[in-house]
Design a protein that fits this description.
Blueprint lengths: L2 E6 L2 E8 L4 E5 L9 H7 L4 E5 L16 H14 L5 E6 L1 H12 L4 E7 L10 H5 L3 H7 L4 H11 L8 H11 L4 H12 E2 L3 E2 L14 E6 L9 H8 L4 E5 L6 H4 L1 H12 L6
Parallel strand pairs: 3-4, 3-5, 5-6, 6-9, 9-10
Antiparallel strand pairs: 1-2, 2-4, 7-8
Length: 274
């Protein structure tokens, strides 16, 4: 995959940019653009796929600043302009699903199709470890990178344990250990999650008109953001398309990559219903 750098909002941003055709923008959650590595190759055969490391994450710069949903909204707006300003299909995973949903509501003329993958924001429930990380002393302990801690994290996120290789553990640990990574994570998640209230940042009620052009995908065994939130999504997105992938955890795009890519392509192709 071709990786390149762009300077957006004064931040050097690393991104994948592959393929030609209709623009498809992939927004990761609390990880990095590598969360889409199982999908970029396949999807880029039909679309121009752009997958950035959000500022503060992955290989992108991590300036000491306040990371907010508003900042990431501005970032996506600038990135879309760099992509040519055409209408896009937008896919967001976990925290990226919340960012993508809010962006689509704020910019309905930009987002032609919206796909939310195990998104935060339909309900308050989230894994207790994420809530505990918002308690300063506990968060400092839980957020301290280590091989064993990273392995436990991946075992929580990924239901198909055979995918959790030592290379994946070490790669994840290396990204978590980069200077500024923990600070950026704490900055944004501290605004999204509260220790006793869970997820407090919500997908806007005004997303309902986007229902007919939205698909929601969830792993049935998701231990981070419970799959039952898809029932809330069904109520909030009349006319939407919904897919639950059996045997998958929080990363259905990795754990059932072929099925995921097929579902995304079928939804985005011109024959899909408006």
């Amino acid at each position: 995959m071709m990786e390149r750098m762009e300077r957006i909002l004064g931040v050097h941003v690393s991104l994948f940019d592959e393929g030609e055709g209709r623009p498809l923008l992939l927004v990761h959650g609390g990880g990095s653009k590598l969360d889409w590595r199982a999908n970029v190759g396949s999807l880029s055969k039909r679309f121009r796929v752009v997958a950035p490391d959000l500022p503060g994450f992955g290989r992108s710069e991590k300036p000491e600043r306040d990371y907010t949903l508003a900042f990431y909204d501005q970032f996506l707006e600038q990135l879309v302009q760099r992509m040519g300003g055409a209408r896009i299909a937008l896919v967001g995973h976990s925290m990226g699903g919340l960012i993508a949903a809010r962006f689509a509501v704020a910019h309905p003329g930009i987002v032609e199709r919206l796909i939310l993958v195990a998104p935060m924001g339909f309900g308050p429930e989230i894994h207790p470890a994420i809530r505990l990380m918002q308690v300063p002393v506990i968060g400092a302990l839980l957020g301290r990178p280590s091989l064993s801690g990273t392995r436990r994290l991946l075992q929580t996120l990924i239901a198909k344990r055979e995918l959790i290789t030592e290379d994946l553990v070490r790669e994840t640990l290396e990204l978590q250990s980069q200077p500024g990574a923990a600070r950026a994570f704490a900055s944004i998640f501290g605004k999204l999650v509260r220790p006793f209230r869970g997820v407090v940042a919500r997908i806007p009620e005004t997303i309902a008109p986007l229902g007919p052009r939205t698909m929601v995908i969830w792993g049935k065994e998701d231990a981070l953001v419970p799959c039952r939130h898809i029932d809330i999504a069904r109520e909030r997105l009349p006319g939407g398309r919904f897919l639950v992938l059996d045997g998958c955890g929080h990363f259905p795009q990795l754990e059932a990559a072929e099925q995921f890519d097929t579902a995304v392509s079928d939804f985005l192709l011109p024959t899909s219903p408006a």
